[in-house]
Specification:
There is one protein chain. The protein has about 240 residues and is mainly α. The longest helix has 20 residues. The chain has 12 helices and 3 strands, in the order αααααβββααααααα. It has a 3-stranded antiparallel beta sheet.
Length: about 240
């Protein structure tokens, strides 16, 4: 069995997931053999799985983010109201770092342009938090709210379906992202936009503690990931030290 895993890793260059899948399936089969009395112990328990490689999440460049925002307003959406709504959705991801489920569950009363805050109720870990609204986002959301009022929307949810008061679903947001990805040539997901916000905020010298609160991380180690994603800080740090 050790030879099987060694050959897979060295000869066939198994990825981490392939190695773990083979390990999982064999473990399940051997557990069945153990409970059936065919073997007296599960030998695969002596073979450890490799450590998961540290892979940085994908982010967009500032240029790509601007390209997507511009395309959102110029894309040929099916309905007139989609222009401002979809622009507000993409901008909210990029300017706040909200998770997708947090965005689609936003209530109309959660977005307060006067106070400049978005209240996120029961985010990840069932925690509430306030997210500040960037001035640029404020004007985008204001245009969307005005259009929403003109169309007579009465839903308690902030972002709704075009032809009803029902809240958006995750798949609706993914469709928007896929259409814009195809139109711009920049492939992205809602979570990619969240990571883009986090890394850009670090590059613009936002403190880790402040960013942790905005993004709703339970541990600051999650926030520190964005330090690794940004090379700007590393370049500035190395340029300040005297070498040789």
């Amino acid at each position: 069995m050790r030879a099987f895993f060694y050959e897979g890793k060295e000869k066939y260059q198994w990825s981490y997931s392939s190695y773990c899948n083979h390990h999982k399936y064999l473990k399940k089969f051997l557990n069945w053999a153990l409970t059936s009395g065919l073997i007296t112990e599960n030998p695969i328990l002596q073979i450890k799985k490799p450590k998961k490689p540290a892979v940085l999440p994908r982010r967009l460049t500032a240029e790509d983010a601007q390209k997507i925002l511009y395309c959102t307003l110029n894309y040929k959406w099916r309905y007139e109201s989609e222009y401002l709504r979809n622009h507000a959705i993409i901008a909210t991801f990029l300017f706040t770092g909200l998770r997708c489920n947090e965005l689609i569950n936003l209530k109309y009363t959660d977005v307060n342009l006067e106070s400049g805050n978005i209240f996120v109720s029961k985010g990840k870990g069932a925690k509430d938090r306030n997210v500040p609204i960037h001035p640029k986002l404020k004007s985008i959301l204001n245009r969307y709210i005005q259009d929403r009022r003109r169309s007579g929307k009465l839903s308690e949810y902030f972002f709704t379906a075009i032809q009803s008061n029902k809240p958006l679903r995750y798949k609706n947001v993914r469709v928007i992202c896929r259409k814009l990805s195809k139109a711009t040539g920049v492939t992205f997901t809602p979570h990619c936009l969240r990571h883009t916000f986090g890394s850009v905020a670090i590059e613009q010298d936002m403190g880790l503690v402040q960013l942790k609160e905005i993004m709703g991380h339970s541990d600051i180690s999650s926030t520190m990931l964005y330090l690794k994603m940004s090379s700007k800080g590393l370049k500035e740090s190395i340029s300040k030290i005297e070498l040789f």
